[in-house]
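Dear support,

I submitted the protein below through the web form. The confirmation email said the job was done, but the results page showed an empty box. After a refresh the structure appeared. I'm attaching both so you can tell me whether what I see now is the final result or a partial one.
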Amino acid sequence: MNPWTLACVFLAAAACAQSPRPGPPAAARSWAVLLVPQALAPGEKLGYPLAALDLKRQLDAARRAGPIVIGGRSWLFGPAADADFRHIFLAVQGGRDRRLDPIVRPGRLLHGGIDLVFSRARVYRVRVKPRWSDWLHDSVVTLTPAQGSRGPGYRTYAADLLDMVERKAVYFRQGGREFYLAFLSDVDARTMRPAKTRSLVFFEERRFRPRLWRLPERALARGVAVRVRLAGSRLILLRRPDGLLVVYSGA
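What the results page shows now:
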């Protein structure tokens, strides 16, 4: 199982990328396929609408999944990444506490765990016990107090976390396949703060080979329809002047 997939099992991010096999560290490569939009051919039709995403209202909605109760407090959580998807993070917020925790070596989730800081007084060690018959849904995720923190632990299934994030995304079907679409602020990996750029993230949930695609917001001009390919599925995207992104089936 590669690092980004492992992180997504915990983060419930639209668990991405490759099949469960060993891979390089998360910073070594991008774990999301970059989409390259193409201009429509003369006379090419949009097809029928599949989904619509309000870019203003739904920005970073996938980072407000939950809540989950950690250390006696309710927390919202979600996935985060830099613009190239080479560095991945867990975004958490509870009251005034807001953090971006880097997931440097997600493979450690299977071997000893990773310490995540929810607040100064709440550090929890996260472990994933994979169940390879359906690792994306049946893997067990546990959080236990670490580094002197106190309080009850937390145990759940990857499917529960994944469902929380997917409910914050836009769902659509195309050609018998199911996709989720989210709009996220990029993270500056050097400063650990939100960057000025944003990305569209497409996710296909499949039992053994979930997939993730990214598209920089700046690649979409207002009022201009473009074509993209998600593996074998062709979609047309139109960023309307009113801030609505519409996904069409294509002709």
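Response: this is the final, complete result; the empty box was a page-load delay. The helical segments are 3-11, 135-138, 158-166.
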